[in-house]
Amino acid sequence: MTYKTLTPNKKIALVAHDHRKDDLVNWALRNRDAFLGHELLATGTTGKLIEERLNIPVRKLLSGPLGGDQQIGALIAQGEIDVLIFFWDPMEAQPHDPDVKALLRIGIVWNIPMACDVATADFLISSPYMQGNYQAALTDYDSYKNRIV
């Protein structure tokens, strides 16, 4: 097993479906101070809303349906995202549902902390690991990568 050290200055990805954007923005406002010292990334509209309301810079990627979910997934796979806060809407079908599932799957593959609701996000943001180092265990995928097909 290998480990990745998550330093105190984490890269936090913020994503929300349309009917959950207000929930994410309100949650982020309540936790604004906890974001200081971290780098925030977000999909298009979500990033714009958070940046405007929190007055904190956010690296904005494409909108989710236009590829933003996939961009975040790629950054996770490259080790460029430490935490994912993704308020997805379980009550409404999404035209980019395969992208959503792929994003959640890649977060699990690379063992990054993820929150999909307010309660879990509260636990995550208030964890002492958010402001300190954390040794994240990474599954050894060498045998998978080196298999002969």
From TrEMBL:
Tell me, what is an example of a GO biological process annotation in this record?
A: methylglyoxal biosynthetic process
Q: Which residues form the active site?
A: D69 (proton donor/acceptor)
Cross-referenced PROSITE patterns: METHYLGLYOXAL_SYNTH, MGS
Any Pfam family: MGS
Please state the Enzyme Commission number of this protein.
4.2.3.3
| Annotated ranges, domain MGS-like | 1-149
Gene3D superfamilies (alphabetical): Methylglyoxal synthase-like domain
* Residue positions binding substrate: H17, K21, T43, G44, T45, T46, S63, G64, H96
Q: Name one GO molecular function term.
A: methylglyoxal synthase activity
Mind telling me which GO cellular component terms the entry cites?
cytosol
Reaction(s) catalysed by this chain's protein: dihydroxyacetone phosphate = methylglyoxal + phosphate
Which keywords describe this protein according to UniProt?
Lyase
Domain of life per record: Bacteria
- Say what the protein does: Catalyzes the formation of methylglyoxal from dihydroxyacetone phosphate.
Q: Which family does it belong to?
A: Belongs to the methylglyoxal synthase family.
Tell me the PANTHER family matching this sequence: METHYLGLYOXAL SYNTHASE
**Family matches, as HAMAP family:** Methylglyoxal_synth (MF_00549)
Any idea what this protein is called?
Answer: Methylglyoxal synthase
- To which species is this protein native? Pedobacter chinensis
